């Protein structure tokens, strides 16, 4: 039996990894980092970052000594032939944790580098873990860890710097994403042409009887900040009931009009969080914990994704699970409508259920999917987790089946109480009813007007504007909603700035309020430049990413950041430190990279930490 030390992030994944290890005949010692094992303090002061000699040195970022001791104790008990598998999540944050774990390993024993493997499991199931370990056996995945960890480390420094400076300016909590969301809310109302789109703020739905027979027809109107008064009046008067009149199936002179095909895409993280908030009143952070718990238990795929595509193996898995749940009309051909477009294959795919093909797992999934959910007990982790699994699975199953919708025409009833304006509005709606067998969870929409909670609107807005990340959407949405800087003035309306929000946007740089500024910084942090070349010093790589977005930022955006940095650190203007110069940065197109990094650096490494030694061992 092989021996191995396996380092993972979350305690909730231990059982799945133990099952996978037994299946592979591995005697495993599993250590969890419990999230980030090295981090900055929660407080923004002291700043904890030093910029010098072309480096960004994270002095305030400290490893958790408890986790370090656990890893070292596991190493001491490990035979010399044992493998070491770093199996943190396959995303930028997971790579940051993986590099931190590698530093601990090498600090303990330099010779361990040859036994370490970076394992990237896409789901916490036995089959996915087995495949990931097999892949890491042929490619240990260690040599590119520096490059993979750079975006997460550079983002943490940048956001700490911006958050510290903007919070000081505003006199209250305000960072890069918060400022951009306040600006987006202002633009949605004043000049939507400067945004990518308008978030959904609610919906109005109607049901009407079919003539001559059959299921009722429904009409659904998503709201994007504007609530048609005529439709709202009808929806409120007939809430929960059929409206007057009837709907006739649409037909031509020669044949029945062909049904429309409903296009349903699988949920990404934001879709699932918004849906749970809109229809079940589950706050985003609670819903996110439900997704994470389901993932750690091996019930759904990776829960932090902005993708709405499915790989071919995922399509097959979805169809198999749907059939086990008694869903008819599903096929791999229909599921493969959601295969990734060129360039999408490297991003995390959409959410989908991942039950093991065991009778007990499939019976549990079937029960969860077909259950009717009412008021959710937010204090019950199991109930929230079951709901999130149900929402993810139902959506994935709908994406893998044919949904035909028959169009119809609404006709008013003679003598109804509807006004001419209301009749005109109802006649202009798209009336549809399903054709063929309904899904087990199908619930006919009832007449009503529904306004979405502010956090759900903000999550939709962040997805549209490309702000934040799947791992932070829930936190940002609740933090902004709880700050009192935005409010919903009326049901179905777009968010507006409160007096506190107005005060904040008057104090931060105006460029920070443009969503494009936030996106540009994210692109710079996530994209390697030619200037990085073969650099292996992560402190220099991080500095280059930060230099890139700082060089592109307007003077009015850079100035308060530099001023703040000088006050909170020992930074002083000098030619060797671009952050301290009036020009800020050399032009990389006309000046050599050496000018950006400083002339060779001092004779001895001023960092004084294991980063450089670790690079020497790896390369």
Using brief descriptors, characterize the structure shown.
Topoisomerase I, domain 4, five-stranded mixed barrel
Shape: globular
Number of strands: 17
Structural class, by secondary structure, is: alpha+beta
CATH class of the domain at 2-151: Alpha Beta
What is Rg?
27 Å
Stretches where pLDDT is under 50 for at least 5 consecutive residues are 573-619
Strand order of the largest sheet: 9-10-14-13-11
Biggest sheet statistics: 5 strands, mixed, barrel
User: What is the beta-strand fraction?
Assistant: 5-15%
Overall pLDDT score: 87
Number of helices: 22
CATH architectural arrangement of the domain at 2-151: 3-Layer(aba) Sandwich
CATH topology of the domain at 2-151: Rossmann fold
Helix content: 40-55%
Termini, distance in Å? Answer: 31 Å
Write a structural description.
The chain is α+β, with helices and mostly antiparallel strands and 619 residues long. Among the domains are: 2-151, Rossmann fold (3-Layer(aba) Sandwich), CATH 3.40.50; 202-262 and 403-451, no CATH class; 269-399, Topoisomerase I, domain 4. The chain is built from 22 helices and 17 strands. Strands 9-10-14-13-11 form a five-stranded mixed beta barrel. It has a four-stranded parallel sheet with strand order 2-1-7-8, with helices on both faces. The chain has a two-stranded antiparallel sheet with strand order 3-6. β9 (202-210) and β10 form a beta hairpin. α1 (14-23) crosses α4 (126-138). The longest helix is centred in the first third of the chain and has 26 residues, at 145-170. It is globular and about 85 Å long. 44% of the residues are buried. The model is unreliable at 573-619 (pLDDT under 50).
């Amino acid at each position: 039996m092989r021996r191995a030390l396996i380092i993972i992030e979350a305690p909730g994944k231990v059982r799945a990894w133990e099952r996978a290890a037994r299946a592979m005949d591995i005697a495993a010692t599993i250590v969890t980092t419990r999230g980030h094992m090295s981090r900055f303090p929660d407080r923004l002061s002291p700043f904890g970052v030093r910029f010098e000699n072309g480096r960004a040195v994270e002095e305030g970022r400290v490893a958790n000594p408890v986790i370090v001791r656990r890893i070292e104790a596991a190493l001491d008990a490990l035979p010399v032939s044992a493998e070491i598998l770093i199996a943190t999540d396959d995303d930028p944050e997971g790579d940051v944790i993986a590099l931190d774990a590698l530093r601990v390993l090498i600090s303990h024993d330099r010779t361990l580098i040859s036994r370490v493997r970076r394992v990237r499991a896409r789901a916490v199931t036995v089959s996915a873990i087995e495949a990931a370990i097999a892949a890491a056996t042929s490619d240990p995945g260690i040599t590119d860890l520096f490059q993979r960890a750079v975006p997460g480390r550079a983002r943490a420094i940048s956001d700490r710097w911006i958050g510290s400076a903007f919070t000081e300016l505003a006199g209250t909590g305000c960072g890069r994403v918060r400022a951009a969301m306040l600006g987006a809310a202002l633009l949605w109302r004043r000049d939507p042409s400067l945004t990518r789109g308008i978030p959904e703020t609610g919906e109005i739905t109607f049901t009407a009887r079919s003539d001559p027979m059959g299921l009722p027809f429904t009409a659904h109107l998503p709201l994007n900040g504007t609530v048609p008064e005529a439709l709202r009046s009808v929806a409120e008067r007939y809430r929960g009931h059929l409206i007057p009149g009837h709907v006739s199936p649409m037909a031509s002179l020669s044949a029945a009009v062909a049904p429309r095909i409903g296009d349903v895409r699988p949920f990404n993280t934001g879709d699932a969080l918004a849906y749970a908030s809109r229809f079940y009143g589950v706050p985003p952070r609670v819903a996110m914990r439900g997704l994470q718990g389901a993932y750690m238990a091996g019930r759904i795929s990776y829960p932090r994704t902005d993708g709405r595509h499915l790989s071919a193996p995922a399509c097959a898995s979805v169809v198999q699970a749907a059939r086990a749940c008694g869903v008819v009309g599903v096929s791999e051909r229909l599921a493969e409508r959601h295969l990734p477009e060129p360039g999408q294959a490297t991003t995390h795919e959409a959410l989908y259920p991942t039950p093991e093909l065991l009778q007990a797992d499939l019976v549990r999934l079937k029960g969860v999917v077909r259950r009717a959910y009412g008021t959710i007990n937010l204090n019950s982790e199991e109930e929230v987790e079951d709901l999130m699994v149900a929402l993810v699975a139902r959506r994935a199953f709908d994406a893998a089946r044919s949904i035909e919708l028959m169009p119809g025409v609404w006709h008013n009833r003679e003598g109804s109480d509807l006004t001419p304006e209301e009749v005109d509005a109802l006649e202009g709606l798209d009336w549809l009813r399903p054709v063929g067998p309904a899904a087990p969870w199908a619930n006919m929409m009832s007449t009503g007007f529904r306004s979405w909670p502010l956090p759900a609107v903000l999550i939709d807005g962040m997805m549209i504007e490309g702000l934040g990340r799947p791992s932070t959407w829930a936190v940002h949405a609740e933090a902004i909603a709880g700050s009192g800087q935005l409010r919903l003035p009326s049901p179905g309306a777009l968010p507006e700035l409160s007096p506190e929000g107005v005060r904040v946007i008057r104090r931060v740089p105006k460029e920070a309020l443009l969503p494009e500024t936030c996106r540009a910084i994210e692109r710079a942090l996530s994209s390697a430049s030619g200037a990085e070349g073969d650099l292996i010093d992560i402190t220099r790589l991080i500095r280059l990413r930060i230099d890139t977005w700082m060089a592109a930022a307007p003077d009015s955006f850079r100035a308060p950041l530099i001023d703040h940095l000088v006050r909170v650190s020992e930074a002083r203007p000098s030619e060797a430190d671009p952050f301290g110069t009036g020009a800020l940065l050399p032009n990389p197109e006309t000046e050599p990279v050496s000018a950006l990094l400083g002339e060779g650096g001092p004779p001895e490494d001023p960092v004084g930490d294991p980063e450089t030694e670790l690079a020497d061992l790896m390369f």
